[in-house]
Amino acid sequence: MRQIGVEELRDIATGAALMGAGGGGNPEVGKLMAIAAVREHGPVSLLDPSEVPDDFLVTSPSGIGAPAVGLEKFPNGSEFELMMNKLREILGRDVDAVFPIEAGGINSMIPFIVGAKLGLPVVDADGMGRAFPELQMSTLALAGHRICPLILADEKGNLVQIDVDSPHDAEKFARAVTVEMGATSQSVSDTTTGDALRNDGVLGIITKCQKIGHLIRHLGDYPTPASALAALLDVTNGQRMFTAKITDIKHVTKSGFNFGTVLFSGIDGDSGRMGQLEFQNENIVFSVSGTVVATAPDLITLIDTETLDPVTNEELRYGKRVHVLGLPADDKWRTPAGIECVGPRYFKYDIDYQPVEELVAEAQKKGVID
Amino acid sequence: MRQIGVEELRDIATGAALMGAGGGGNPEVGKLMAIAAVREHGPVSLLDPSEVPDDFLVTSPSGIGAPAVGLEKFPNGSEFELMMNKLREILGRDVDAVFPIEAGGINSMIPFIVGAKLGLPVVDADGMGRAFPELQMSTLALAGHRICPLILADEKGNLVQIDVDSPHDAEKFARAVTVEMGATSQSVSDTTTGDALRNDGVLGIITKCQKIGHLIRHLGDYPTPASALAALLDVTNGQRMFTAKITDIKHVTKSGFNFGTVLFSGIDGDSGRMGQLEFQNENIVFSVSGTVVATAPDLITLIDTETLDPVTNEELRYGKRVHVLGLPADDKWRTPAGIECVGPRYFKYDIDYQPVEELVAEAQKKGVID
Fold first, then answer.
1. Is residue A370 part of a domain?
2. What is the ipTM for the molecules in this complex?
3. Domain that holds residue B53
4. Do B169 and A158 count as a contact with CB atoms less than 8 A apart?
5. B248 with B133, same domain?
6. Which part of the chain is the S-Me-THD N-terminal domain (chains A, B) (predicted)?
7. What are the chain A neighbours of B173 within 8 Å (beta carbons)?
């Protein structure tokens, strides 16, 4: 167990935005809310999964919906108290800890806000090891754990409680309610045991995010940007796939999701090549000159070439210079069931999944990328 | 208190279909389900509102959604047991009785199905005195009573629980969830006290429906169809506005509602005149030769010219000969607040509400109708 205070939150938020793979919301908003909560209530205990008793009850508070809307309409915090009270009524007892359902600018921070307010520890594990757009896309649901009881709230204090077995049905109802709540809602879901989270979650994700954020914040300690990038790729086990300038962004918010396409013009070693990225809240497919270089569930994430700061999809701007990184997904996603759940075909792309490290090696061999 | 068995249910279902004002679902489906429940479990006690103790807890089980879909996808009954169990958890006790939220082929029958299965009496009162398409359109909500806790279920046993203060928000979330449930859902809502139901409900509606149904079933006892119609108008306090043949039906199911327009060509005394009916689940505006003759909240209801059987909107057929009746709404609807809630302007018609008896008298005077 260690304490998470203001400095740690800053780094976790930055790292989570990178691991959010384009989605997960703006890290500034989540960070400021979490820092305010910790300033008011004091630091939050972070439990290593190995420290969590088997019979602990853990739950995940998070935000649902289009991150672009979340920017203007973020939670006021009292929604979570309402929902946690409702969860207590359902369970007949309090939960022992909270955990993030995904890595992302907003959803990595919400457990710390709730933890600070309610005096609950946060477990260093999540249900995705990255961000994904839909509720059933968690390693916990994949392993057969229930998402429900799923409680949704809006900023008016409206509560909707969903109790269904199928993770896809949970997603379907939550999405419909979220649209009516104005395209974003707050939620509490995926209540399970310490044992289940340790077996079926992605472990150590918060510590990983913190390391990433710490490295980016201490960029000046590295002799060159290239050496800092190398260190970042080492921490994330990732690859630089492409370096480019953003030349076009098509963006639409529909049914509670952000959909979009980003076009890139290569620079430096990638000069003369064109990149294309498809996203649905999170980045799903990246290709260069028509050759697919990475797909979900592997992480496609953009970072600023100067600062190495992650660039989430609501921060995309014409002319921005970015490295496009490819990071391998957690092994739990690289199974047939995982790929069926979150692979490119689920997102309606007629592409077979292949691990990013293989695709990158092939593309390099063909001279498609640098 | 009196007992409701198979014969009574037949009559109630017929009368409720008439009072459903075109909506409320097909009376055959509801009737067959209720009869099966009463055959299995025995008759259901019907309580006169005056017999209901002030502190009785009463609730309303019903169906939500487009009646045209309800025809193919009607409840299997176990949804209501699931929902009543959930309601017990919320309230910490059982309810003492159930009541229909509206008069209509399906929703007048569901309380008898639930009453028979769970051994609960039904109160002879509803929340509309007719059918209406949206949840907030009840005299109970109009009087300030909460619709929530509102529990929704589908035939898969999926449960969604809505807990919001605003009746319009309850409707909004329920509609979104109902659409995802496949355009119909089952619900339990409007839990209140015996006292509140007696003060703010529409009293005696079931007995009224039974009288109407009894009269129609005993049509042969009247010397002529005209004298039976006169008796029916006497029981309902209604008027025959138009007699016609259906010449066109436009019909679309959208966002969990049935929308439509029906065109009529007058026959008998109305020969040579054209009628037009607009509906949104229920009939909303009826006009003849461009003159409005009746609008919601007054009831516009069609009956077969031969059998006097009510013709609900999913039974509309080209060539069918009908009387178009106009029945005054309950006085609770004829207030400024009632008219704002369910008058023609709420349904997007640029028409001021005027009581049907006045509109009919004016139209007769102008020679627009017979």
1. no
2. 0.73
3. 2-203
4. yes
5. no
6. 8-162
7. 158, 160, 177, 180
